[in-house]
Amino acid sequence: MTDSPGRQRETAGTDAATQVFVDHRELLFSVVYNILGSVADTEDVLQETWLSWAGRGRGAPQAPVEKPRAYLVRIAVNHALARRAVEDRRREMYAGPWLPEPLVAADSPVENADAGERALRGEAVSMALLVVLETLSPLERAVFVLNEVFGYAHTEIAEILDRSASAVRQLAHRARSHVRSRRPRFEAHPRVRRQATERFVAAALGGDLATLLEILAPDVTLWTDGGGKARSVPRPVRGRDKVARTLAGFASRPPADLDVRYRSVNGDAAAVVYAEGAPFAVMVMDLAAEGEGVSDVYIVTDPEKLAGVGRGEGVGRTVTEEGATVERRGPA
Question: Which of 16, 154, 155, 247 has a C-alpha 20 to 30 A away from that of 304?
Fold first, then answer.
């Protein structure tokens, strides 16, 4: 028995809607993740966006969407802002500093990526920038992400947020000024960042206080996020001496069978640390301008935020009980 013409048209419409959504899913993920900083929440918002998109054709006939990209971005951003309001209330009860859920890339080293790929994986989603974006209002953050990261014009953003263009320009100016005051533009060469990361991680995991004091900037800040489920510090630690001694204290009681894998995390060279085969921590550091050392250290140990971290191949270093590191290549 064949389907009725109406049923066939409905099926064809669903297939077409699915393909349009799939074609734009990567863009939607990037936009929403930059607004929320959580992979799990981003996936939920994309599901809500899909339901809104797929459901628009049911019931009374509607005119075709002339600009599906703009339509989908508008749906996704507004769902993200609604989710953000809920999450902000939850974070008031969060145990310790909240850090974005790390995006761990495949094994290819950052320095081997071409310029376009580095731009996509770099500052747009960097841990350092996302931490600064947490200090913006939800609307300021959405405007900054759409304008500065994805290049949307103020008039386009006004349509997405249902605000006037003048209001969007004011939001953009406030957000841009705030971000620049908190995070001056400086981008170290990927090879320099990788070398600095390896030296820092070796010193931090080995408890090498002298080296830590040498490579940390005077006003360095340490952020740790254990989500109340793993070892962390209840508030940010500031200052070279305090940060160095805190890291050395962590190293004095290491878990068994530590293994370090260097990956691109939110576009920057970083370290993924495993303990007994399971993800234990993601360590990301930011460099100060003019070679002044490590300015910020971000360590995520929350098991829920590490759930999506895989192993794969690459350069690994096993940390021995004496704190020494032994390089190993191949599968972890």
Answer: 247
Q: Return the structure tokens found at 297.
A: 């250290």
CA distance 307 to 301: 10
Residue with tokens 């360095």: 220
Task: Give yes or no for residue 281 having a pLDDT over 90.
Answer: yes
For residues 227 and 115, the model is more confident at: 227
| DSSP element (H, E) containing 263 | strand 258-265
What are the tokens at 35? 């607004």
33-56 pLDDT, tens digit per residue, is 999 999 999 999 999 999 999 887
Comparing CA positions, the residue from 130, 132, 136, 122 lying closest to residue 81 is: 136
Host H or E run for residue 285: strand 278-287
Q: Tell me how far apart the alpha carbons of residues 45 and 308 are, in angstroms, rounded to a whole number.
A: 18
pLDDT reported for residue 126: 87
Parallel, antiparallel or unpaired: strands 216-225 and 237-238: antiparallel
Q: What is the pLDDT of residue 185?
A: 62
pLDDT band at 101 (very low <50, low <70, confident <90, very high): very high
Q: How many residues does the chain have?
A: 332
CB–CB of 11/3 below 8 Å? Answer: yes
Give the whole-angstrom CA distance, residue 225 versus residue 231. 8
Angle (CA) 106-126-178 rounded to 5° is 170
- Matching residue, tokens 């509607």: 62
255, amino acid identity: P
Q: What angle do CA 126, 131, 136 make, to 5 degrees?
A: 120
- Specify the pTM: 0.83
Helix (H, G, I), strand (E, B) or coil at 310: coil
Position 100 scores a pLDDT of 94
CA distance 233 to 27: 35
Which 3 state secondary structure label does DSSP give 55?
A: helix
Question: Which candidate, 35, 5, 211, places its Cα nearest to that of 130?
Answer: 35
Tokens 């936009």 correspond to what residue?
31
Which residue, 33, 134, 145, is CA-closest to 80? 33
